[in-house]
Amino acid sequence: MKKLRNLLLLLAVIAVVFGCYVGNVAYNKFMHAPWDQILGIENHKGRVATVRAREKNENWEAVNISGRDGLKLRGTYIANPDGTGKSVILLHGLYQNRAMSIPFVDMYLAEGRNVLLIDQRGHGESEGEGTTWGLRETDDIDGWVRWLRNQKNQRSVGLHGVSLGAAMALLYAGNERNGDIAFVIADSSYGNIIDLGKEKITAWSDNRDFLTGYTVLLPFFRAAMFLHTRKTMGQIEPARAVQSLTVPVLFLHGANDALIPVQTAEALYEACASRQKYIHIFADSAHAVGIETNYNEYRRTVDNFLHRVEIPAD
User: Fold this and answer.
1) Where are the beta strands (DSSP E) in the chain?
2) How far apart are the first and last CA of the chain?
3) Which of 94, 155, 218, 228 is deepest in the core (most CB within 10 A)?
């Protein structure tokens, strides 16, 4: 009996050690996976010619800050000609860059705000290998907010993100810093990147056995993430962040979104703790293209939201 017990204990130790090893491998693969292929999206993160031309021709200000880990982060600041102490930070989607946010500029200038377009780390002209899904991005956003307050004397700062950018805005606003933000507009956010990823990886690899392995290895994956980053999975889940959100928030989504189902936006809205929360669904619109397919409706929805919830900055 004692030999059997010792054998079982040895097997258990081996299983844990093996699980930790595989969990670490899975974490590294997750952080460096070809997500453009897995998610079926086009890679435009290096195409910055359009925004650089606007900087040159329209005197938009090229700006840089350093992330907490020393990476150089790139942005473009567009001052409102009327002069104002209010700004919005525009956050682009995965495998995009700050040029993706250009269609939103005129809308916010007309709303009396200055506009800051940023390249998220690993995108555009910002340094880094790629997204960290919120492990580092919330610190980056905090750096940009402080830049606006300290360098541009901005008293009111809002966030408007699309897809990955929407998720990052929710993560930032859902933590202890949320009192610094005037509002959040989350266009086409996911709720849980791990749940989204496992389904997409399964379809991409055409291997249904992946789900079984995923379930077994998830605890080890979570442990590896914590050891690498000192952060938990919950800290990069917008679905959890909204439960602590107190600032005004508008959820936008396309009814025909094949990448992130519209039910995700509805679930985020229901879970959101903010007393000023709103949701708008664009009919016949796909993923993250509401500004293109329903421009007038999009602008009217954003205008109505801002007029309804904002406390003007003096």
Assistant:
1) 61-66, 72-78, 86-91, 114-118, 156-162, 184-187, 249-254, 277-282
2) 78
3) 94
Token pair of 57, please?
């021709």
Show the domain range for 28.
2-32+209-227
Q: Residue 199 — pLDDT band, cuts 50, 70, 90? A: low
Residue 27 counted as domain residue: yes
- The answer to whether residue 258 sits within a structural domain is yes
CATH number (domain holding residue 258): 3.40.50.1820
Retrieve residue 264's tokens. 């995700």
> Which distant-in-sequence residues (6+ apart) come within 8 Å of 81 by Cβ?
109
70 sits in the region (left: phi over 0; alpha: psi -120 to 50; else beta) called: left
Residue that the structure tokens 């940009």 belong to = 144
Are both 280 and 179 inside the same structural domain? yes
Report how far apart, in Å, the C-alpha atoms of 5 and of each of 2, 8, 9, 46, 120 are.
5, 5, 6, 58, 53
- Tell me, yes or no, whether 149 and 298 share the same domain: yes
pLDDT digits (tens, 9 = 90+) for 206-258: 555 454 555 666 676 677 767 767 777 778 999 999 999 999 999 999 999 99
Do residues 158 and 98 both lie within one domain?
A: yes
Token pair for 48: 């910055």
In a shared domain, residues 14 and 78: no
Average pLDDT, the chain: 86
Q: ∠ at Cα 113 (109, 118), nearest 5°?
A: 90
Residue 3 has which token pair?
């030999």
Tell me the two tokens of residue 179: 């009192």
User: What is d(CA 274, CA 249) in angstroms, rounded to the nearest whole number?
Assistant: 7
pLDDT digits (tens, 9 = 90+) for 109-135: 999 999 999 999 999 999 999 999 999
Domain's final residue, options 200, 227, 254: 227
In a domain, 167, yes or no: yes
Nearest Cα to Cα of residue 95 among 166, 185, 164: 164
pTM for this entry: 0.89
